[in-house]
Amino acid sequence: MIDLASDTLTRPTPEMRAAMADAEVGDDVFEEDPTVQALEQQIAAMLGKEAALFVPSGSMGNVIGIRTHCGMGDEFLAEADSHIMRYEQASYAQLFGVAAQTVAGGPGGLLTLEQLQGKIRPHNLHCAQTRLVCLENTHNYGGGRIQPYELVAEICTWAADNSLARHLDGARLFNAVVATGIPAAQWAQHFDTVSICFSKGLGAPVGSAICGTREAIERARWHRKLLGGGMRQVGIIAAGALYALKNHVDRLAEDHEKAQVLASAIRESKGLSLPSEQVDTNIVFFDVDPSLGTADEFCARLHDQGVRVLALKHTAVRAVTHLDVSMNDIEQVADLLRAS
Ligand code: TLP
Predict the structure, then answer these.
(1) Residue 314 pLDDT > 90, yes or no?
(2) Which of 3, 4, 7, 8 to mutate to test the pocket of ligand 1 (most atoms within 8 A of CB)?
């Protein structure tokens, strides 16, 4: 099976496994795991932040990020198709009594400043209080699109001028870094907290980090413990993430090349089309013409031919490239798509 369901599927390479097997460990709830500390220092330095906290998942990183800035009765602004809005069970509401005000972005999940302006609720006892803006970069449901740097800077400046905190779901920030050449710290400087996933394109088996000021991360540590995310000799998995940061960032460019090969095949096919002509990183969403059946039926046929992709919308399919698929695999998938 050539598996393009997600970049979360990657398995640790032999070198990564060796780094994990050799990891020095300690009890991380006591803050005594040297490998976790090395990972936290490394990711904080790469993002130009004072501190970082290792968390089990991107979803936990996001809900902790939201909780760091919002309490009961507060609300945050987020794009309607962001991962936080679509795929995290409204955890901010279930767990912390925080509300969300969604704003429908344009193609690629792109938000503009004009769409956000006017959304901050007045300081009035009838209203939830708007405290935070969340952005996602790259935007998963938007097809891995990069939120343009100038726009991100403009939105965050506006948010700061209006006393709103900024949280970035940077699950795939390094894809944006590699694709644009804009360093991670430059993107991150506009945000109070940034959550980064090691278990997506970077290829580690488990883990994310939330990064910010020392003070924000101290609060985040309390919220992580509350959620049951305080882990013990977790250096054994942090070592995989540390290995990924040192060895798997630049290679994301290869995943982007593979996505371009898929995009070209889709452009040449009769029954498939790209909703937005642009494919920026490692995620390719494509529409399936009704003459080929539903997206589910199309995926089932590809599955029979040895390829897994996901029907994430009724008429659209997502393919994600990653380090466990070779260019040869991708050429095979491209042939199947081209003939569709
Ligand atoms: N995304 C997964 C699925 O949940 C859809 C995937 O296969 O793409 N932020 C973004 C932008 C994400 O894409 C994801 C996971 C998360 C956060 C959550 O990360 P985890 O799965 O570690 O909780």
Answers:
(1) no
(2) 8
**Taking residues 136-164, what's their average pLDDT?**
98
Residue nearest ligand 1's atom 19 by CA: 58
CA distance 190 to 299: 39
The CATH number of the domain holding residue 207 is 3.40.640.10
Cα separation, 334 vs 299, whole angstroms? 14
Q: Are residues 212 and 325 in the same domain?
A: no
Q: Are 26 and 34 in contact (CB under 8 A)?
A: yes
How many domains are contained in the chain? 2
Q: What's the CA gap between 4 and 65, in Å, rounded?
A: 29
**Residues contacting ligand 1 via CB (< 6 Å):** 6, 8, 57-59, 83, 87, 136, 140, 169, 171, 197, 199, 208
pTM over 0.85: yes
